[in-house]
Write a structure and sequence with these properties.
Layout: H1 4-9, H2 11-21, E1 26-34, E2 37-44, E3 47-54, E4 59-67
Antiparallel strand pairs: 1-2, 2-3, 3-4
């Protein structure tokens, strides 16, 4: 999961991700792409997502990268 400093440096980011994705969302990595954007990876309910938080517009964009699917057999 995310390094402890990611949570300490960006506590609002984890809250924002959990608001958007649900309470089980966790940070994997966070980095600055420039002064106005945070980029990173998050995991949530069997999904790996990339995200961009644009500070000026306070907009969070996510994009699924990988999703585990449960396949069920029909009886």
């Amino acid at each position: 999961m995310a390094a402890p400093q990611d949570h300490a440096r960006h506590p609002h980011l984890l809250d924002r991700l959990r608001d958007e994705l649900g309470p089980e969302a966790q940070l994997v990595s966070v980095g600055h792409s420039d002064a106005q954007r945070l980029r990173g990876l998050a995991v949530c309910s069997g999904r790996i997502l990339s995200f961009v938080l644009e500070a000026e517009q306070n907009r969070l964009r996510t994009q699924p990268l990988f999703e585990l699917l449960e396949h069920r057999r029909l009886a």
